[in-house]
Amino acid sequence: MRPQRMKLKLRKGVSESIDVTYRLATDYPVDLYYLMDLSNSMKDDKENIARLGASLAHLLSNLTSQYQLGFGSFVDKVLMPYADTSPTKIERPCAGCARPYSFRNDLRLDTDPALFTQRVSAASISGNMDAPEGGFDALMQAMVCTDQIGWRKTARKILIFSTDAKFHQAGDGRLAGVIIPNDMTCHLNDAGEYTDYDKYDYPSIAQVNKISKENNINIIFAISNPNHEEVYQRLSAVVETSSYGRMESDSKNVVDLVKDQYDRLSSVVRLSDNSSDDDGVNIQYFSRCKGDGPSIPTKECRGVKTDDAIQFRLEVTVTECPTDNSETRYVEVKTLQDSLILEIEVQCTCGCDDPAINEENSPTCSGAGKLVCGVCECNDGFRGKKCECSNQHSESSEQDLTLCRAPNSTRECSGLGRCSCGVCDCYDRQFIHGKYCNCNRRRCLSGDGNECSGHGLCGCNKCDCNPGYTGDLCECPDNSHCFDSESMKECSGHGTCECGKCRCQPVQGVTYSGKYCEDCSNCGTGRCLVFRDCVQCLAFESGPMADTCDFCNITINEIDRLDGQISSGASHCIFEDEEGCYFNFTYRYHPDHDNTAVPYIIHVQRERQCPPPPPILAIAFGLVAGIVLIGLLTLALWKIFTTIHDRREYARFEKERAGAAWSREDNPLYKGAQTTFQNPAFGEQVK
Fold first, then answer.
1. CA 649 → CA 286, 643, 653, 657, distances in Å?
2. Is 561 in the same domain as 602?
3. Listed residues 574, 597, 625: the one ending a domain
4. Using an 8 Å Cβ cutoff, are 585 and 535 in contact?
5. Which of 38-42, 119-123, 155-159 has the least mean pLDDT?
6. pLDDT tier at 502, thresholds 50, 70, 90
7. pLDDT of 94 over the 90 cut
8. Domain membership of residue 45 as a residue range
9. Cα separation of 115 and 119, whole Å?
10. Domain presence at residue 116
11. Which has the closest alpha carbon to 246: 234, 257, 231?
């Protein structure tokens, strides 16, 4: 970074511009901490990671000579229902498994890759009962225990979170009676184990995001189970300093994940400073990064290569005079490794009482007066701003009056002052000034009473705006405030810049919102997931953050219906809660986002849409009636079928009986009642 130290003398409200040049450092220190799920299902992955220790060390040695490797492991809270706490299961939760634990720092960050391989191989597999793991407990401890883990302040920090399961988060601890929200502080004992797992709940996603940003820790979620890819993809979209990668069966692509993350980190330049409101020093950052457009307000540039020189412009302003006796402030503007020290001397007094700067009979005062703090105090018998007039002459001759009239004007001093010795002496010097008293500072006052809205100085009846502001009263940031540092397009190409703010416009039927019109609710880039848990917590006192609402930095407005918000272009979000009810909310970027601590306006529909409760009695009576009806119908069908069958059998019987009848003459077995015999001897019939 160039320069690296500057001394400034500033008055309150007067800005000073500083040009800073930054080039990426080579051989930058890297701290890589491998945080691994050591439940029984990760046994094969552990063996693969142990074999990859040399490959990781080889990769890091090619990137930098100043690298460190560390290793930690986790299972889950040793409480029911997460782990079986019976005596036999505590000692041996599964075949070949060690005692369960929450988190353990197995290897502090170290430069010996062989030690990394040794510690990973020596780590014992353990087991728990439920499918999600206690990875968030371990992740929080690994990030906040700076000294125990060995994080270096000036190193790029990479943390690999390796697992094959989902994660417990805030609210899940209530199943074991753990209701105190996670305190985001370190609780490791001398053995490097997390001891307060039974006291504090799991961290929330918002807490993980907050700590990772504050500590500049970049997380890689390396997942080996393809069934959980979507969960961690969505998680990495919410945790701003994280990325996601699928870990192959042999875990060899972990090396590629680390290299990709390092390349991404090393291509980012981000400035910050340690100034605060108490210092009374405000610093604004501007840069065009690698683009050719105008400089935009940004502290960060991406896609930077080693040979690139990035120019930043810093606008340093003293907003308040110091209340103590010290008039010097020290502010550090820094990246991860380099810094610029600003020694700011605040000048809030003129020192007019110092005799050394009071000049008697000063030439500036025509030799007839004393120059006191830039103003002439005329000796007796002289007058005028520079004591150029003697009282022996008339108060206002015609020649003097002519000198006091503005061109094309017949009034001396514009009627707002007295002509003395050809010079206008304005009546209301606080607001009226100028050669002819023709300039009025009241015309530069904005509605809040500040001159030029606090963003410029008043000239003659108009404001001379500071860089970055426009408008008659310097009330509007210029168009540079409408450029996003990533897209480098005005309003991301989805709107127009008006008074330094983006006015988003529908593009091909798609509605955009956000500071730079970068937010689209129905194209996968919205913030519904970001606000979901906090909205559910604040509006309905439920959800994973039900006991940690204090960590939500949003403000909600409850209304009966959202139709008006949706029709006006607000992004609409719908989610289902644990009870099967749907809750709705909308969000839009605050139109005055530069002057508010909450940049989004969120409206929540007061009533949830819950399915009606099932009619138990109707179902019961309907079930009984249905059974009876089915029984009667079955009997009726049985009766019909048997009747038809009987009638068919009877008809067949009648038919067969009718067919069996014949005449008596044709029956060979029939014998009549009268018998006739023939005597052949007599030749006549005897009866």
1. 104, 10, 6, 12
2. yes
3. 625
4. yes
5. 38-42
6. confident
7. no
8. 31-266
9. 6
10. yes
11. 257
Q: 190 and 286, same structural domain?
A: no
* Tally of domains within the chain: 4
Indicate which CATH number applies to the domain containing 245.
3.40.50.410
Do 113 and 155 fall within a single domain? Answer: yes
How is residue 183 written in tokens?
């305190």
Chain Cα centroid distance, residue 214: 13
- Residue for token pair 């930043």: 312
Examine the domain organization and report whether 233 and 314 are in the same domain.
no
Taking 90 as the threshold, does the pLDDT of residue 519 lie above it?
no
Q: What's the whole-model pTM score?
A: 0.52
Max mean pLDDT range (60-69, 294-303, 573-582): 573-582
Enter the DSSP assignment of 201. Answer: P
The CATH number that applies at residue 569 is 4.10.1240.30
Q: How confident is the model at residue 674 (pLDDT cuts 50, 70, 90)?
A: confident
Paired tokens of 231: 């969960």
Q: Which of residues 218, 247, 266 is at a domain's end?
A: 266
Per-residue model confidence (pLDDT) at position 193: 92
Encoded tokens for 613: 């409760």
d(CA 333, CA 331): 7
Q: Are residues 538 and 498 in the same domain?
A: no
User: Quick one: 66 and 83 in the same domain?
Assistant: yes
Q: What is the mean pLDDT of the chain?
A: 81
Cα(248)–Cα(255) distance, rounded to whole angstroms?
11
What is the rounded CA–CA span in Å between residue 233 and residue 244?
Answer: 6
pLDDT, tens digit, 9 for 90 and up, residues 41-53: 777 677 777 677 6
Q: Is 461 left (phi over 0), alpha (psi -120 to 50) or beta?
A: left
Name the amino acid, one letter, at 75.
V
Q: 504: burial class by Cβ within 10 Å (0-12, 13-18, 19+)?
A: buried
Q: Is 635 helix (H, G, I), strand (E, B) or coil?
A: helix
Q: Which two tokens stand for residue 51?
A: 């074999």
Q: How far, in Å, CA of 574 to CA of 536, rounded? A: 11
Query: Do 596 and 553 lie in a common domain?
Result: yes
